Amino acid sequence: MTRPVAQPFTEFRARDRVRALLDPGTFREILDPFARVESPHLALQGIVPQGDDGAVIGRGTIDGVSAVVVALDGAFQGGGIGEVSGAKLASSLEQAVNDNRNGTPTRAVILLETGGIRLQEANLGLLAISEIHSAIVELRSFGPVVGVVVGTVGCFGGMGIAAGLTSHLIMTRGGRLSLNGPEVIETEAGIEELDSSDRAGIWAMIGGAQRVAIGQAETLVDDDADAVAAAVRDVYRTAPATAVPARSTRIAAGRRLLAAVDPTGRPTPTDIRNLSTGGSL
């Protein structure tokens, strides 16, 4: 018997990723490219805008339950958040909050392929990200909010904080998660601080396997569309009756980890793993 060929999730564009996570035949896009809701700021800076502004909002069902799946298109402006894309994400999550309040259980999944705010729309992007953060926190009171980081852009900046606010984060080994990206750190602090071309070192520090190992993500999956979809469904199928304290509320554990790290000693990824599991340097 021939084994089915795996479909790498990273090879899907944002729209196909959203469709892959919803029940077959239920995908309905809100403000698709034909709506032409584009950023009014990019053309003024010589950048060709995109009809969906790099954000795809899908409504449908997951295991028969109403769901919203939002995705950022890393191929457009590095998945950066601007006025329009940010408003699309924030409003879709806020609508999910309203649906839950009004008695329609609605699941929320966020596909994070983004460098953070779009520098051409920095202030507007920051405002939108703050609204996204607030919506995620409020949605958590109704059930798990699932984040997915698979690569190839990774998840950085203010949307790295959004990933940290989710109830359950799914990553592949190729996914990266951090506040500042390697290139930004090298540019600001110099190659002595971090060599952004050291791919093995970068993934060892902020890749999916490391984030899961140190408790900053919950599930490590293969880069396979079926595997990612199954992991999302498993979160909801196994969700406890009472909410597990969100990662972002474990403040004491975070403080203990920070207190144990000597910033002058350059701890290795293995050192951080040991500290995260109660060990010492």
From TrEMBL:
Q: Where is this region: Disordered?
A: 261-281
> Which UniProt keywords are present, listed alphabetically?
Transferase
In the UniProt record, the signal sequence range is: none
What domain of life does the native source organism fall in?
Answer: Bacteria
Spans of biased composition, class Polar residues?
A: 271-281
What would be one Pfam family of this protein?
Answer: Carboxyl_trans
Q: Which PANTHER family match?
A: ACETYL-COENZYME A CARBOXYLASE CARBOXYL TRANSFERASE SUBUNIT BETA, CHLOROPLASTIC, MALONATE DECARBOXYLASE BETA SUBUNIT
Question: What is the protein name for this chain?
Answer: Biotin-independent malonate decarboxylase subunit beta
Organism of origin is Cryobacterium algoricola
What broad taxonomic lineage does this protein's source fall under?
Answer: Bacteria, Bacillati, Actinomycetota, Actinomycetes, Micrococcales
